[in-house]
Specification:
The chain is α/β, with parallel strands linked by helices and 338 residues long. The protein has eight helices and 14 strands.
Length: 338
């Protein structure tokens, strides 16, 4: 990136959990920033955030915030994306949006750069960042899909509190301390207490009894893989960890593929790291993935109950590959292709 031309970047939602990670990723990857504009709601105006040793003052997010901006990274929620992203595009910026606002819009590319970067060429000013749980799943299954085809995907997630935002992470900490003291505080960010609990409920329930989060995984994966007929079933579960989502994935491939071949192709896939040696108790876990860029995959084995079945377990940092890193990688492709 050091040889790329410098661009003006705005972060909408700069003071949130993902916004903080966007700042870190831009700095860590030496993204070619000329001007960095930090935008948030009126209550955050005047705060300062550090970028490359400089303090940058947060400005209020308005429809006039994007004059001269080349790339606008949005992580302020679907409502604000719907309200302000068109204004950013009108001002000449390309929007990379981390919310659900535009993901299923047929005019908007839904992109994981290691999987479907070619779709970026069709953007009309807005590019959607997929759901965090979707991103890590397609990182793990897309190489298998390309090699052996897929008939069916069944996934169960173990999602960290980071997926519900900074306040939810804080609630895990405070409610855990309270539980250790024999108290049971009322939940604020979850339907039930999260400390020492597992909640099979993320987002709102739909008419088909799946949650919105589960249907995001279904529909977004079909779109990213350009496989609208692929059969997918998801169960999304919140667990009492701070960062990094985990997923147990069962695949039925169209053509027979061995577990060894799966390990081989995943080990050669950019952004994927295979950790899979049960004899040494080596397998992906949230503590390993926290703060890292790779999607970790292990527990790879042939399903003894299913013809052409493969089981695997994957873990990735929800705030990084599941959000900020993927968005910055999209921006890197835009700069490289400009």
């Amino acid at each position: 990136m050091s040889q790329a031309k410098k661009v003006n970047v705005a972060i909408a939602g700069a003071t949130g959990a993902v916004g903080a990670e966007l700042l870190k990723v831009l700095e860590d990857r030496n993204f070619p920033v000329a001007e960095l504009r930090l935008l948030a709601s009126s209550r955050s105006v005047g705060k300062t955030l550090s970028f490359k040793g400089q303090d940058i003052t947060v400005q209020e997010l308005t429809k006039d915030s994007f004059e001269g901006i080349d790339i606008a990274l949005f992580s302020a929620g679907a409502g604000r994306s719907l309200e302000f992203a068109p204004a950013a595009v009108s001002a000449g910026a390309v929007v990379v949006d981390n919310s659900s606002a535009f993901r299923m819009d047929p005019e908007v590319p839904l992109v994981v750069p290691e999987v479907n970067p070619h779709t970026l060429k069709s953007h009309k000013g807005i590019i959607a960042n997929p759901n965090c749980s979707t991103i890590q799943m397609v990182m793990a299954i897309a190489p298998i899909y390309r090699e052996a085809g897929l008939q069916r995907v069944v996934v169960s997630t173990y999602q960290a509190t980071s997926g519900a935002g900074a306040a939810a992470m804080e609630e895990l900490m405070t409610s855990t301390r309270a539980a250790l003291d024999g108290e049971t505080p009322d939940p604020e960010n979850f339907a039930h207490p999260i400390a020492f609990n597992v909640i099979p409920h993320i987002d709102v329930f739909q008419d088909n009894a799946y949650t919105k989060e589960e249907m995001k995984m279904v529909l977004e994966t079909q779109k990213i893989l350009d496989a609208p007929a692929l059969k997918i079933s998801a169960t999304c579960v919140r667990i009492p960890t701070l960062r990094a989502h985990s997923e147990s994935i069962n695949l039925q491939t169209e053509r027979k593929i061995s577990a060894d071949r799966v390990r081989e192709i995943l080990a050669a896939s950019p952004g994927v790291k295979v950790i899979d040696d049960p004899s040494k108790n080596e397998y992906p876990m949230p503590l390993q993935a926290t703060g890292g860029y790779d999607t970790l995959v292990g527990r790879i084995r042939e399903d003894i109950s299913l013809e052409n079945g493969i089981d695997l377990f994957c873990v990735a940092d929800q705030l990084l590959k599941g959000a900020a890193l993927n968005a910055v990688q999209i921006a890197e492709v835009l700069v490289a292709d400009s």
